[in-house]
Write a structure and sequence with these properties.
With 593 residues, the protein is an alpha/beta fold. Helix content is 54%, strand content 8%. Strands 1, 2, 3, 4, 5, 6, 7, 8 and 9 form a nine-stranded mixed beta sheet that branches. The protein is globular.
């Protein structure tokens, strides 16, 4: 007999169908397109892990924690879940519209927007739909697709896209080459990036200001003085004078290696050539000179110059709305022909934080010079003269060499900070707790150098050790002995760049490593400002419940906000300045297996 469906039942059925479609769209965002199914949890990526299930779900999600339960505990997570579901639906709507419009320019605009928002899954789907619409991708299509892969750190995919573009007979322009230079250099492949630049020149495509800047910026990150020097040589060979940004990056690279005299000579030459040296350049010189040259006025003069320029920049920024000295090579703007000179909100936030950090560093250097006796500063100069890479405080992990394990059996209380960044948090903690051995793990060499310099300045070099390398390597059996750490902190780690990314810190393998190195009863503390990453962390910790137990009241997986005395970091300050107040605090105790 035919079943009769009444109107109320049909409405309920339609409502369920719409929820399923919304969840499917969000799952597509999580997976990267129309149904990828990759891992989840990003900052500004293809949607949060939260988006993949209906709002009525409760309890465990597989072996993890449901989104609805986590959303019920925090408004920030609830807000991000809602936002990412909407973003997923909007993306699917735009993709359907693109197929109807059938214009390459429309697809290119989507590629640009998805790429800049780090929605790589949707960017990939957009590019694939160009051919499905019976169209041919042009140089802007490939360039925006390259940018999407580069911005989420997918270097191997970026190379595949580049090969496809060349195989298709599409000639790269200067923007496409610049994106490739950026992708290689940000991955630490400075020589390979320079090779791309040489190829670029050989085919008659001239590097532009952004090309040089992005290479030099990554020379700073990886402490590559030789790479930066060769980049400047190429600029001069091409009759391209280094601007203020290029000079700043070169000076920072030199000062990271404490090459003060060379930095001073370069700054003098650049000034003579009409380049206005930035406040940040002077601060880099001041920081290095204060440690290495305590008995002259180089650092004092550099602080004075930095403060004067900073005040002038601030006045110009208030008048013009942006700092014209700064080139934002993080936003390459590969586009469909249109561009804008107006800085984005994220760039404006960065500029504000940059000025704030510069002013704070000036104060710190001046305090060091004025408050620390000359005799002590002369002792520190002897230590600093050996350089960061020769310091007994620092271990640099390389894949192709053996490394001696960390010495941790000479003290009772050893605590580790993973992602120690610029070193603000760990050096302050070391100052407050002089009887604790603090170990900072950080993958970027320039950040390790900054932390080392701060430890010398604060006089905590005796109880701070630094490891330059990936966290998974630093916590491996060859570096960190078992059951040797009292507490391990993960402060504001970079969230996965997109939901399908394998480059994620807090995963099952990491938690096993942490469990191995913690003492019985030891604690893992994680702090993030990213609601989606908080969701992912909670799920990973839930899956690892045989290894860790939450210490939060009522068995909650996290607490909103951080303890008042916890301390701030560079990234905490940045997001506070941007009025982003979401904070997630997780403290878990090691279980015995």
């Amino acid at each position: 007999m035919k079943r009769v469906v009444n109107r109320g039942e049909r409405k309920r059925s339609d409502a369920k169908r719409r929820r399923r479609e919304a969840a499917a769209a969000a799952a597509a965002a999580v997976g990267g397109g129309d149904g990828g199914g990759e891992k989840s949890g990003t900052r500004g990526g293809d949607g949060a892990a939260a988006g993949a299930r209906d709002e009525g779900d409760e309890g465990d999600e597989g072996d993890g924690v449901s989104t609805s339960y986590l959303s019920s505990l925090d408004e920030g997570i609830k807000r991000v879940v809602k936002m990412n579901r909407k973003r997923a639906r909007d993306a699917q709507t735009l993709l359907k519209r693109a197929l109807k419009v059938k214009e390459v320019k429309f697809f290119n605009r989507l590629l640009k927007d998805f790429g800049n928002e780090k929605q790589f899954g949707f960017a990939k789907e957009t590019f694939e739909r160009i051919s499905r619409a019976g169209l041919e991708p042009n140089v802007y299509s490939y360039t925006n697709y390259l940018n999407a892969a580069t911005r989420v750190g997918e270097t191997a995919v970026m190379r595949e896209i580049w090969k496809s573009m060349c195989d298709a007979g599409v000639e790269p322009n200067e923007v496409a080459y610049t994106v490739l230079v950026k992708g290689e250099s940000q991955d630490g492949n400075i020589d390979r990036a320079r090779s791309v630049m040489r190829e670029m020149i050989s085919v008659g495509v001239e590097p532009n200001q952004r090309t040089y800047a992005t290479l030099l910026r990554n020379c700073v990150r990886y402490g590559d003085v030789d790479g930066a020097t060769k980049c400047l040589e190429t600029m001069r060979e091409r009759d391209y004078s280094p601007d203020a940004t290029a000079c700043e990056y070169f000076i920072k690279t030199l000062c990271g290696k404490l090459m003060v005299q060379r930095a001073l000579a370069f700054a003098r030459d650049a000034t003579r050539d009409g380049v206005e040296i930035t406040a940040q350049s002077h601060v880099a010189i001041a920081t290095a000179a204060s440690l290495l040259m305590p008995d002259n006025d180089v650092a004092v003069d550099a602080c004075r110059d930095a403060r004067a320029i900073l005040e002038m920049d601030l006045a110009n920024a208030e008048k013009n709305g942006a700092n014209a000295r700064y080139v934002d090579d993080e936003h390459d703007e590969p586009h469909d022909g249109a561009s804008s000179d107006a800085p984005s909100k994220s760039v404006q936030l960065f500029l504000r934080l940059r000025s704030q950090e510069t002013s704070r560093e000036i104060d710190a250097v001046e305090a060091y010079i004025n408050d620390v006796p000359l005799s002590r500063r002369l002792e520190i100069a002897q230590i600093a003269s050996k350089g960061v890479e020769s310091s007994s405080q620092v271990k640099i992990i390389a894949d192709d060499e053996d490394i001696e394990p960390l010495t941790v059996d000479d003290v009772d209380d050893v605590r580790v900070e993973v992602c120690s960044g610029h070193g603000d948090w760990i050096t302050r903690r070391a100052k407050q707790n002089p009887n604790v051995r603090w170990i900072g793990i950080e993958m970027r060499r320039n950040r390790v150098a900054l932390t080392w310099m701060k430890s010398l300045r604060l006089g905590v070099e005796g109880n701070v050790r630094l490891v330059c390398g990936m966290a998974h390597d630093a916590l491996s059996a060859r570096v960190t002995p078992p059951a040797s750490i009292s507490e391990l902190y993960v402060n504001y780690p970079d969230p996965p760049e997109w939901v399908g990314s394998s480059q994620v810190l807090v995963d099952a393998a990491f938690l096993r490593d942490v469990h191995r190195v913690l003492k019985p009863g030891g604690h893992l503390i994680c702090v993030t400002d990213d609601p989606a990453y908080a969701v992912r962390m909670c799920r990973e910790l839930r899956k690892a419940r045989a290894l860790f137990a939450t210490t939060a009241a009522g068995g909650k997986p996290f607490e909103s906000g951080v303890p008042e005395d916890y301390g701030a970091s560079y990234f905490d300050s940045m997001w506070t300045l941007g009025n982003q107040r979401d904070r997630y605090f997780m403290r878990y105790v090691k279980r015995e297996e």
